[in-house]
Amino acid sequence: MPDIPAPPAAARAGASSLKEGGTVAPVREILWGSAAGAHKYETAEELEPDMSKLVVKLMVVQADTEFASIQQHRPWLDRAPTLEDRWIESRIIADESRHGLQACRILRDFGEAGQKYIDELLAKREGEHKLEAFNMPFDTWADVGAFTCFVDRVGVYQLRAFQECSYGPLARAMPLMLSEEQLHLNFGSSVLRRMVNDGPKYTGSKAEAQAAVTKWYPRALDMFGHSNSDTSRRAIEYGLKRWTNEEARARYISEVTGLMASVGLDLPAPEFDRHVL
Ligand SMILES: [Fe+2]
Ligand SMILES: [Fe+2]
Q: If you measure from the C-alpha of residue 95 to the centroid of ligand 1, how many angstroms do you get, rounded to a whole number?
């Protein structure tokens, strides 16, 4: 992924310094925001009420997207065009279930309030989710490709924004989630590429792939949230997120512009069909 600044030096040192005995030294201090330099928060009780509410809010949205995408992928488990594609579909579903579980484990630490959100999350059906991209069914295999290429990629940007954040339990959940998400988005671009290059010999056509790109790209851009979001400003101040919505969106646009040029598909203008600005 191009053009995302590396974590601050302390994080890089922490991530790469392998101690004798083969363990990686965790980063203990808060790396940005108003409490930079202090010890990371390790328990829900340590968080001041506003930060606590924000962590819960961020985890509810995170878990909601994980569970929703399972519902979206499920019909394609036994309809994916090749055996390998079916296997990857099943892996994606397993990965998203695990990500949902990780987000819920963080919510559980917030006691009764957290548990109430978990119960609500598990009761949500198709069409009842928070973000529009997760209420749209996958009508074609091209939808599966474009969703994993564009929407999962936004997920990666969101997770990278949490990397080495000030809340230890959240920071520690990131590395595995990120490595799994990488598989999803590589799969997505490979589906689109195969449709463009091999057409019906694989499945669908270049025109179908293009239609799916035009459909999902605006929903993916919306997922970054409002440009002047107070939530994102507070999240940076608390050391939870590294970038504003607008910064992350701009980096994303530049990455997918290069990617789609290499696949041979056109991206609509960033303003096209947008619902969240
Ligand atoms: Fe996920
Ligand atoms: Fe994913």
A: 6
